[in-house]
Design a protein that fits this description.
Layout (H helix, E strand, L loop, with lengths): L30 H28 L20 H32 L12 H13 L24 H9 L9 H4 L2 H16 L7 H7 L2 E4 L11 H9 L5 H8 L21 E4 L9 E2 L7 H22 L58 H4 L2 H22 L17 H13 L2 H20 L7 E7 L2 E6 L11 E2 L5 E4 L1 H4 L14 E7 L2 E6 L6 E5 L2 H17 L7 E5 L13 E4 L2 H22 L20 E5 L5 H11 L2 H4 L1 E7 L7 E7 L4 E4 L4 E5 L4 H13 L27 E4 L5 E3 L8 H13 L7 H8 L6 H15 L9 E3 L5 E3 L3 E3 H14 L6 H14 L21 H21 L4 H12 L6 H13 L3 H15 L6 H10 L3 H8 L1
Parallel strand pairs: 10-14, 10-15, 11-12, 11-13, 13-14, 18-22
Antiparallel strand pairs: 1-2, 1-3, 4-5, 4-9, 5-7, 6-7, 8-9, 8-17, 15-16, 16-17, 18-19, 20-21
Helix pairs in contact: 1-2, 1-3, 2-3, 4-18, 6-10, 7-10, 8-9, 12-13, 12-16, 13-20, 13-22, 17-18, 21-23, 24-25, 25-26, 26-27, 26-28, 27-28, 28-29, 28-30, 29-31
Length: 998
Amino acid sequence: MARRSTSSSTGSPTGPRNRTPQPVRVRRRTFGDFVKAFLAFIALLVLVVGVPGALALTVGWPLPSGAPTLDWLRQEITVQTFLNVLTVIVWLAWAQFTACVLVEAKAALSGVGLAGRVPGAGPSQLLARQLVAALLLFGATAASLTPGLSQLGQGLEGNNRGTVAAAQQTPGLFAQQQEQASGTAAALAEQAAQAAQAAAHADPGGASAARDAGTKYYRIQPPEGRHHDSLWEIAQRHLGDGRRYKEIHELNKDRVQPDGSRLSEASLIRPGWIMEMPADARGGELVEMPDAQVSPDVQQQIHDYAKSGDQGQDHAEEGGGTDASQVALPEQQRPGADGGADHGDAHGQGQGQQHEGPAQPGSGSEAGGHAFGLPEALIGAPLLAAGLLGALGRRRRQALWQSALGAVGGRRGMEPPTPTGDAQDAQDALLVGADPEGVRLLDRSLRGLAAGLAAESRALPVVYAAWLSNGDLHLQLAQPAGKPPAPWQLGQDQTFWMLARADAERYEDVDTAAPYPGLVSLGTMDDSRLLLNLEAVPGLVSLSGREADRAAVFASVAAELATNGWSDRMTITLVGFGADLTPLAPNRLRHLDGIEALIETMEAETRQRRGALGAAGHDSVLTGRTGPAQHTRWAPHLVLLAAQPSAEDALRLAELAADAGRLGIGYLVGTETGELPGAAWEMEITTEGRLLAPLLGLELDAQLLPAVQQRAVVELFADADPERDPDGPVNAPPFLVDISEQGRPAVYARLVGPYEIIGLDTPDGERSALLHEALALLLLHREGVHPRVLASALWPRGVTEDVRDALVERLRGWLGSDPDGTARLGTDESGRLTLAKSVVSDLDVLRSLYHEATQGKGVDSRAVRGRLLTDALVLVRGPLLADRPEDRYRWLTHEIIDAQLPLLVADIGLALSAFHLEKDRAEKAIEALDAALRTAPSDERLWHELLRATHATGEPARIRARAADLLARSGARGLPPRTEALLDELLPSWRDGVAAAG
């Protein structure tokens, strides 16, 4: 792959260094090529057909005709015995060579990847490869052969250069498959014949001819080796700047090519296509009509292509043209005139991107003169944000449950610490940008595809990448794989499978392994998001650019892989960076100190996976993920190496990566210079945040996780660590209210149970539901809510700033002001929306009562403690917002209040039970525990205390009844071991009683 020079600091673009001096000369076939092809055909004919024929005629069948006996060991060894042994060896050598020929021919014709090694073949396979390459020199598929004829005489085994070439061999990411090129010649001939017939009816002196005379064209040449022509290289050669490839694209987009296909940004150009060039193009390969140097057929094709441009121009002038902003990647159906194509963002297409941009001076998101924004890197990464937010929620719930094992009334971590500073901004950005619905649809779509293929007894195709575009999911296949299972359909060509959002929404959860867990977001192009399948790349993927820019890409890739929702299990090895990222997913992420440790680890891993695949009878991990898949055996192992390896280490990594595609191992390697031996795909991150891969046709707005946001995200996870500072102070509730008679609030909202507001009139109209929901969100976040977080919660598909600001003003007017004139909805110094202390919820009161009973006045006064705990338990009327509509309050899925509230109620019940048992009031204790169990029925601590309180009544029958009730609730799982042990202690005969009752 061509190397690139990094853009200068001044921003002047520099293109890639060409493979050959300009202009590029396309290699023409010579008489020597014909001779090589003829000799290769004769050699293959002799070796594949002649050898077995000669053996059959001269020696015959060398093996014994009967079953072996002990008498054979006593027979004399004669010359014929030696001849028979040699004949068997020759037969085996012939069979091995024939297998090599078949393997190499299959790889050459498919044009995908390097041919697999035939065990023990060595030089035989190299000879077969060279002969097949020479024979197929004239076919379109010869371009895919690597190593090529230039490697004649090189050894296959133990040759580092050959290994690197093998690692580099791969079709371009968006290249059309080479086997399609074999039909291009026939299509061109047919097109030329049709054009000749139509020429009789054309006007030779019309506008088209005049246009031809002043226009330059370029005809795409067949690829040579790994070199696929690209718009970038054409622009570099003929326009002097590769970045001008967009001009060529604009001139040729949506125009029918000679083979019937069209140019799209998601594909590389194909051999035989014609490109109209800008007027200042220059170079020996250009054709300027009329041109006697090209054949009449080519002249006719260019003439027809020029007319397609005229038609497109006329169509655009009539108002029927396609606006450039509507061009999606890859090609897809355009929205209808009824506007019904506005489906939103199905698969993480940037929910945050549909929201308003950063706050601008003078906008409604400013309050009190404070202009502020959120990290756009997180807002613009919806899949990454959803993964991080989900992982953070799980970590916080884990911390809550672990803290529940502490002492009643004094346990740690009841209230997670409230983030501040950059951590708070990062959390808000995650809430704004996350698209959990897109992640869910992507996961269901991929697993549904795997289940559909398994039902048809078909293997998973190799997928290089996925595009998320305008609600649709497009998979880029390594090679055509036939018709996809319904509801999937073919995309713009045979190498794209497409699933519309409406079809994806009909998928349900299926019990199958995640088929493509190595997909990871790289960035966006126009309105489409690209996910690269790292484990499918047959070689190394290199990333060049400044160290800080590379680190931002590596951190983004690592964080998304560690927390994404479309994979089961995986191992992600970080080398040269990311030691602080491991808290994001300790079960997935691991950090190694150096490249030597990495190579040692991956050599062992590669051997183990090869052996496991062979033992299981699978060709690759993909065939092991369909049917009765073993989720753990075929999990991917992805290596992210930020430090540039030495040339020797790069060669060793290339050897390991040559077979990585089928083993489920992927490598992303950083390089300072852009020169990495063995790199299959090369990318560059610029200082402007652009991710470039010119030879793959990519120029993306990169998805990044800069150092500041990385530290903020890690801080969020560190604060939620269950093991963090176990001896630290108890976290107080974020908002304590005055629970005395003088502290009666002006506005009181009941959230624990059915939603009810006291002190305000019910708003009229459809906005009432929005105002209630906004107030609930603010009540659950007394620390303040960013306006963009509020907007993303109320309008998950996005909303404009004026609509959001209008709602905030209505909410402010509804809540009114305190007697001193202060608005009950204000803003803090950071610009976040906050509620006045006169606006209170029952959840605030519940937390304050428990805190005061266990850490305030109730500590020194038993009577006060009992009264406060009793008042708190009376407030519990059911689950949080019990009557909320199903289509609203979806932001609660990001909260941990659903875990906090049952634990808080259980703690209150346990504390009140202990209060009563101190005075031997067992019935009162049982009454308190039963009340708490209505809100926290799965809390094992409540059941244990209930058994102890029941035992205190001295009635064994009641304990047996409780045990039977517990057993019925536990179902097939049975009672937890600690509960059984407690019953054995309190009532040793309980098992017999339960069995008799059953």
